[in-house]
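Troubleshooting log. The previous structure file for this entry was overwritten by mistake, so regenerating from the original sequence record. Sequence copied from the archived sheet and checked twice against the printout by T.R.
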Amino acid sequence: MEIVLVDVTIRREWMDLKVGDVIKMKKSHPCGTNAWELRRVGMDIRIRCTGCGHQIMLPRKQVEKAFRGFVSRSGQ
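Regenerated output below.
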């Protein structure tokens, strides 16, 4: 029996999200807007609705999946 070692390193590139960025999400909030301001960025991301100010915290994977583009970038 022959043992074969295979390198199965998975490299995951994260999106360049920064606190203060305003992003557009796939679905709109019940208040009618789909623009969200990033308030905290890490493994979990806190976002604030730009329409009504409601804040929620979501896993980074879920935010990246629903991401549809930047409305404005912080520092630009």
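The CA atoms of residues 32 and 51 lie 7 Å apart. Archived copy saved in two places this time.
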